[in-house]
Design brief:
433 residues, mainly beta, SH3 type barrels, Immunoglobulin-like, eight-stranded mixed beta sheet, 2 helices
């Protein structure tokens, strides 16, 4: 009987001896990362070098190799190899034959091969028992270089490349005080690594902003004053302007494991001056919307560029327990810009909008009169911002509330409504086309 003898360890690719390693990752919030990997290895004058611990989502055409210390090397050829010697491929022609497998733990198994997969083999032993053997024959993603140098010896080199499957996002937690005048705001960074490899003890940087990408077709779609004062050394991330984006650098090394979701503090809790607003946009929404608004400034208690992300807002009830009161997504927000977080619809504030009159003054000019009624069932006085939309050349003729022309198409009325009362805003707009 023909016997096939396989040694799993023999088939594993063994790279040249590696020494010190330094990793740096710059992650973009577009599901890609720039990886810089500094290593030391002993090279002959010429030969083949294999590097196995690279992501399966690597973009091979982005790879750059440079020697930092030691004699120069010339890369004659680069190949990217992935999953070339899977168990199922290797053993497919040996089904129903007797094989002998020695695993990485040096256990021996002999018997008839019933089936195989990329991770294990099913064998019927001589005594009739069936066993599943994890064969360890899967080849890792591998970069292979053919090189030539002036002399052999140790060299320190840097490998840089773009990889997909690594993404980051920002999340914020806000706690509203009992008077709805301050927020305790903290920021978190969530990193997801689906690149196919881990990055141990890496220097971590995050880029906020959208860079232009031409995505390779073969990339897998799956990869793809009241403030707290801190010294630079105490900040989890240090922020800096970078080209037309913002760069956030973690002040300590971090390990980003494969298939891992990691959360890191972007900044600790800051106390931020804020205010609650009631907004009624009757042409678009039937309910009065509630938002928390603050200015992203040092004077208000913050003053750092905020990456795009989700803001979850909480408030203590009478017992002192935090309760969730809403969430919203904010865009990339520079310093000194306004941030509005929409929390939900008011339960005790009801509004109605209707047109009460239309007057045609000429072929191109007419006047519309609207009536907006707001009923406040709360035990406190409020002010409702009534948003109205216009087109053409428009002018407000009559109104009984403070008015602000926000832009060419939008006007805002500010209607005070006392507790347990009803107020009506009436205005007339003249429109010319």
């Amino acid at each position: 009987m023909k016997k096939i003898f396989l040694v799993a360890l023999f088939l594993a690719f063994i790279p040249l001896a590696l020494f010190a390693r330094e990793l740096a990752i710059t992650i973009y919030n577009q599901n890609i990362a720039l990886v810089k990997d500094v290593r030391e290895a002993v090279f002959d004058r010429e030969g083949e070098f294999r590097l196995t611990d690279v992501p399966s989502s690597i973009e091979p055409t982005s790879v750059h190799f440079s020697v930092l210390t030691g004699a120069p090397l010339t890369i004659l050829e680069q190949n990217y190899q992935y999953d070339l010697v899977g168990t199922s491929k290797l053993l497919e022609k040996y089904l129903d034959q007797t094989i002998h497998i020695r695993t990485e733990s040096k256990e021996d198994f002999e018997g008839k091969l019933l089936s195989s997969s990329p991770s294990d083999c099913i064998i019927r032993k001589k005594d009739g028992g069936v066993v599943s053997v994890r064969s360890g024959l899967i080849t890792k993603p591998t970069l292979v270089w053919l090189y030539r140098g002036e002399k052999s010896g140790k060299r320190r080199f840097e490998l840089s490349y773009i990889a997909g499957g690594i993404n980051w996002s920002a999340d914020y937690v806000a706690v509203v005080d009992k008077d709805d005048k301050e927020l305790g705001l903290s920021g978190w960074v969530t990193i997801e690594n689906r690149s196919g490899t881990a990055f141990p003890d890496a220097k971590l940087k995050l880029v906020a902003g959208k860079v232009h990408l031409i995505k390779p077709e073969h990339w897998d779609a799956r990869y793809l004053a009241k403030g707290v004062t801190m010294s630079e050394a105490e900040k989890p991330f240090v922020e800096e302007s970078f080209f037309e984006y913002h760069l956030y650098t973690l002040t300590r090394p971090a390990t980003v494991g494969n298939n891992e979701t990691k959360q890191l503090s972007l900044f600790p809790e800051h106390t931020v001056a804020a205010r609650k607003e009631y907004i009624y946009d009757g042409a678009r929404y039937s309910m009065v919307r509630v938002v928390m608004e603050f200015i992203n400034s040092e004077k208000a208690g913050l003053g750092m560029p905020l990456p795009e992300g989700k803001v979850r807002v909480y408030k203590e009830d009478k017992s002192g327990a935090l309760q969730f009161i809403g969430e919203d997504k904010i865009k990339h927000t520079p310093r000194d810009e306004k941030v509005r977080v929409y929390l939900g619809d008011a339960f005790d504030v009801v509004a109605e909008r209707k047109k009460t009159n239309y007057k045609k003054l000429s072929r191109t000019v007419h006047e519309d009169t609207y009536e907006i009624t707001v009923r406040n069932h709360k035990k406190e006085d409020i002010t409702v911002t009534v948003v109205e939309h216009f087109s053409g050349d428009w002018t407000i003729k009559d109104k009984d509330a403070r008015f602000h022309k926000k832009d060419q198409y939008t006007g805002e009325f500010y209607l005070p409504v006392p507790a347990d009362e009803e107020k009506t805003l009436t205005y007339t707009v003249r429109i010319k086309y």
